[in-house]
Each structure stands twice: as C-alpha cells, then as structure tokens.
Amino acid sequence: MTTTIACKTEANHLEAVHSGTRSSERAALIARACRIIETSEDPPLLGELAAEMGVSAYHFHRLFKAETGLTPKAYSSAYRARRLREELATSKASITEVIYGAGFNSNSRFYEAADQMLGMRPKDYRARGTGTSIRFAVGQCSLGAILVAQSERGLCAISLGNDPEALVQELQDQFSKAEITGGDSEFEKIVSEVVGFIEKPAMGLSLPLDVQGTAFQERVWRALSELPPGTTTSYTELACKLGSPKAVRAVANACGANQLAVAIPCHRVVRRNGDLAGYRWGVERKRELLRREASDTGNDL
What is the pLDDT averaged over residues 5-33? Predict the structure, then answer.
C-alpha cells in the first residue's frame, strides 16, 4: 500500500475524535488501525477495528476513508495484493507458501480473488506475463496514430502518437513477456469503438479495462475517472482529495504512468495556474481533448 500515514503515539481519545480531532491525532489513530490491519492473520472486521479505536463503526469508517482515501476493507485488500505481488516477484518460495504468507488462509479463497488482484494467474504474474495473450491494432484518429491493446481481462493500453511503429515498440517493451498478436476483424470493432469515444467523449466507453498499478496509482486513476467531463482539477487538489496533500509529485507520477489514454482521463489534470503542461501523449492533444469535452457539455473554451 503506498498511502503514507505518519506513525505517532497511539491515540484513543473518544471525545477528541467526536469533537473534530486535530489532523495529527486523527492520522495517528488511523495509522494504528492500519498497523492492526497489516499485522492481522485475517482481515479484521469493521466493528472489531472500531471497538479497538474506541469509536463507532460508522464514525471509524468515515475517518478512515477521509484519511486514506480507502475504506478499511479496500485498504486490507490492497495491502494483501501488494504483499502478494512483491512475494511473487522476489520470493523463491512456492506459490502456495506465498499465498499463505500474504494472509490467505486457504488456496480457494486466494484463487477467488487472484484475477482481480493480479490481472492474471499467479504463475503467469511470477513469469512477468509469460503466456498472457494480448491483441492489438494500430489505426488513425484525428489526434494522430492510435494503438489499442486488449488482454483477457480488458483494454490494457490506449496510446496516442505520431509514429505507429513507436507505439508498437512501446507496447512490446511494456509487455515484454506476453504473447502479443495483431487483432483480427472482430478486434477492429473494438478499435473503432475506442476511436469513436476519442472523437466524441460524450459517447462514453463501455469496454472493460485491465487496470494494473500500485494501490496509490489506482486510487489516483479512480479519482480521475470520477471527474465530470468538461472539468479540470490540479495535481494539488487531487492530492488533497485523496487525503494526501503532500503527495503532489506522486499524483503527477501516477498520471504519467497511465497506460489508457482518455479512458482514464489524466488529461483533466492541470497545474494550479491552469497551464496544461504535463501530458504523456502531448500537450496539444490534451488541449484538444479538453476542448471537445467542454464543447460536449456546453462549456466551450
């Protein structure tokens, strides 16, 4: 889990919490809860955590989400998923040993959640995507060349640029261990839908996405997806919304790591003064995407 909460002296002052706990006390309270979640053999229940903190379940749930940007359950899942990824990537232990080490007390419980956490089977993840099939196609849209790629779970890359060959090379570098093949005529329909969405954002995109990132990156991308079309936010505002006001640089890095142009709308993030600088696929494309969204919503720039 990438959310950073300063570990300070344990605080459990019920009156202070209910009367508007100071930020440092609130951070210490939630930090304590996070440590309990991380060190528990099984994910603790909400009521158990709240009782340990000395507050109601409702109030604790609200405080926890305000401080971390995640619910206690989501934090627990993200923490176990991170441990699992790290262990699969670095440990020489068997997959079964890794499963138990990540806090799953049975193989069946793990495999029920594995696809959502890893995006692939654990043995494929350990092999860095070996055996994973990705289809792709390159086309043209009004913003230049476009590459669309899809794994078994959903769209895993939407890239824009001037050089189609460079987009293909980037895809191969990104998924170096996967089996990458050109899409067939059926896949062309998917590309057409993506192109239509880029040309007319108001259409929306109903295709499933294969989103893979750190817990913090996924929090940033989720917050971006909640921004209404035609609106913008700053890196600072987004960091504050996530409950991590000092994580402005990390927010910017998460935007830069986005592999799904427009589908995850990092083009809606601007500097505090309104400047558009900082877009993986070019500032002019960012300007045009914002213009289109503003036009669709009746707020022409």
Answer: 56
